[in-house]
Amino acid sequence: MIKAMSKPKLAVVKFASCDGCQLTLLDAEDELLAIADAVHIAHFAEASSTLEPGPYDVTLVEGSITTQEDLERLLRLRADSRFLVTIGACATAGGVQALRNFADHDEFLKAVYAHPEYIHSLRTSTPISDHVPVDFELRGCPIDKHQLIEVLSSLIAGHRPRTSSECVCQPCKRRGTVCVVVAQGIACLGPVTQAGCGSICPAYDRGCYGCFGPSRQPNAMALSEGILQGASDRQQLANLLSNFNVAAPAFSAESQRLWQLSSRRSSK
Amino acid sequence: MSVAAEEVSWMDRNGLQRLIELLADEGHEVIGPRIDQGAIIYDSIRHVDELPRGWTEDSQPGTYRIQPRNDQEHFGFNVGPHSWKKYLFAPLTTVMRSRKTDQGWVMDSPQPELRRFAFLGVRACELAAIAVQDKVFMGAGTMDPEYQLRRSHLFIIAVQCTQAASTCFCTSMGTGPECHAGFDLALTEIEHGFLVVVGSDHGRRVMQSIDTRPASVDEITDGVRRRQRAVNQITRRLETDGIRDRLLSKLNHPQWDDVASRCLSCANCTMVCPTCFCHSVDEVHDLTNEEILRNRRWDSCFNVDFSHVAGGSVRDTTRSRYRQWLTHKLATWIDQFGSSGCVGCGRCITWCPVGIDLTHEVAMLCAEDAS
């Protein structure tokens, strides 16, 4: 049981990321005053240049670990935080930058930088939970405002945040969206992706991009085998799986399988 | 079932329009089929022009496409992704509210929202589905106030199927394709008009304000022929003889592992099912913890968390969840409510993204019974 906190001291910290998840907190315009009332925002570089030192009651961590320096900063931050909550696909799965985990890091450096010798990044982009214990993970690219408020209000109230573990299909059905897989033959990761976004994309005739990462017990291979019609579909689905949550184990296992199938077929 | 000639009247398309207007004037929200998002869905209807006239659909396991017809029928299709349950048993409802005041916590249940619906185009399998949900939400000791309120004000215009989809199997479940009772009015579309049968006093009252004439013997015969065409087109079968005991004796059959390898556990089947009623109740509080809403939303036995109790999830594998769904729907539902939970509409077959067909699974599970 978590003890209720009177006015918790909050830090918002980033590693390798685009800042979009932190922005979600600032985007919570209707709730921002209540948030500022309920928590003491001690460290939030995107909102204020006044940065108070730790320890913090709640630390929201955005971004993935891509340098040795960041890893060391993370270890200090963990020691300074009572509750450490990771926010977004970078922090929870390594982000889109984890594409490098499946490619040649040195080749990337040479292609992008005139002087790659100045760059000291790690070969992989990894989630925060690979390095330190994480108290709660909030998925999404970006995270959902309502889920973020649920996390903050739950920690203040002293209980575990309640975020659904159902897949994208269920909110999709509740809002009356017609299935884009069945009615239009569009590749969609909805059946294997955790809900939380409000099932936006299918409502606009797009398949789910998997921003919220794998649902609980996802059966990604059954999705591929069940909806794929041909090689172009296979590539399309592999591309979808290789987005913001490319390094989430359930997605990477299936995308790697599909890439291998594609390359085997094309080399024939 | 044959109907005596004097009980069947004929009305034209203008009569149908008048019917929609009369029901709207009575304060009903008229809901009917229309085309949206590449499918025939249920939504508000104000004019016959909004009906999917001249359209039909091709429903296959995991695939659905709307297609133009070569005639101008208004109801020349079967069932789509929506069912009427979204109106009677709403996907999301607030059932309780708690507010912190100076005098302490004040709790109240919001008044159930009365919406007077008139459903236009309810098929026989859907009438059966509404009857199944009536037992769930209006049974002894399980009265749901919102469901009951909406249900008691509901006006139903049934439409007889004159064709069947490949996924239909109402004949196996004894629910269709012909509507016999449970409606205010029942229409059979024939060339240039509709045969109307009255099923309630309210239906009779409404029809008195609409221009009709007694249907001719030829028209009635045409209606019978069209309804028989639907029966003839149904090819899918589910063997229901002794199904309860047969399924419950197969709890360790290897077919459950086979279907679990294909099943996404995504819950699409339960969401589109017109009888599935499972839901969860969540409490949602604001940042200050001074207002707490208790919300009920559609949930599914295919969710790991749905059977989560102290110590973990009771059904922690797709195998156990699929088995729970199928054996509840087709077997233990009979113990619980006195009828099957399946009405043979075929939605779970069509709208499964990977096309899992429960009639096939049952046939595989029970294959040895036949020999």
Question: Biggest interface, and residues per chain?
Answer: A-B, 44 and 47 residues
Looking at the overall shape, the CATH architecture of the largest domain in chain A is: 3-Layer(aba) Sandwich
Mean pLDDT of chain B: 95
From the spread of the alpha carbons, the general shape of chain B counts as: globular
What this model shows, in words?
- Chain A is of the alpha/beta class.
- Chain A has helices spanning 20-27, 29-38, 68-80, 89-93, 105-112, 145-157, 169-174, 180-184, 200-203, 220-227, 231-241, 249-267, and strands spanning 9-14, 40-44, 56-62, 81-87, 136-138.
- Helices cover 41% and strands 10% of the residues of chain A.
- In chain A, helix 11 (231-241) packs antiparallel against helix 12.
- Chain A is globular, with a radius of gyration of 20 Å.
- Chain B is an alpha+beta fold.
- Chain B folds into two domains: 7-88 and 101-233, no CATH class; 243-370, no CATH class.
- Chain B has helices spanning 13-25, 85-88, 124-137, 145-152, 170-173, 201-207, 217-233, 243-248, 255-262, 268-272, 318-337, 347-350, 358-365, 367-370; strands at residues 8-11, 29-36, 39-44, 55-60, 63-68, 92-101, 104-108, 117-122, 155-159, 185-190, 193-198, 213-214, 279-285, 291-298, 308-309, 312-313.
- In chain B, helix 9 (255-262) packs across helix 11 (318-337).
- The radius of gyration of chain B is 22 Å and the shape is globular.
- The two termini of chain B are 35 Å apart.
- The model of chain B is unreliable at 1-6 (pLDDT under 50).
- At the A-B interface, helix 2, helix 6, helix 7, helix 8 and helix 10 of A face strand 5, helix 10 and strand 13 of B.
List the keywords.
heterodimer; A: 268 residues; alpha/beta; Rossmann fold; 2 domains; five-stranded parallel beta sheet; 5 strands; B: 371 residues; alpha+beta; eight-stranded mixed beta sheet; four-stranded antiparallel beta sheet; 16 strands; disordered N terminus
